[in-house]
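Supplementary Note 3. Input sequence used for the single-chain structure prediction.
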Amino acid sequence: MGTTFPKDIMDCMKGCILSIFWPKKDIVDFMKKVGCTSRELMPESEYKELHRAEIVDKIFTKFYI
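The predicted structure, written as discrete structure tokens, is reproduced below.
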């Protein structure tokens, strides 16, 4: 996606995502709906092993930082 955001904004976005979406699948589905493709996101088997916050961190690190 190529956009860079300041850390404080990233932390706020992460907090909002984690407050709104509880199941891990909902977090990944949200990321798909906002423009991440299946090719850009991790496979389901990989995100099932991560904590919710780690999923968001991994996606943000890969695409927004």
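The two ends are 10 Å apart (CA to CA). Residues 14 and 57 are 8 Å apart (CA to CA).
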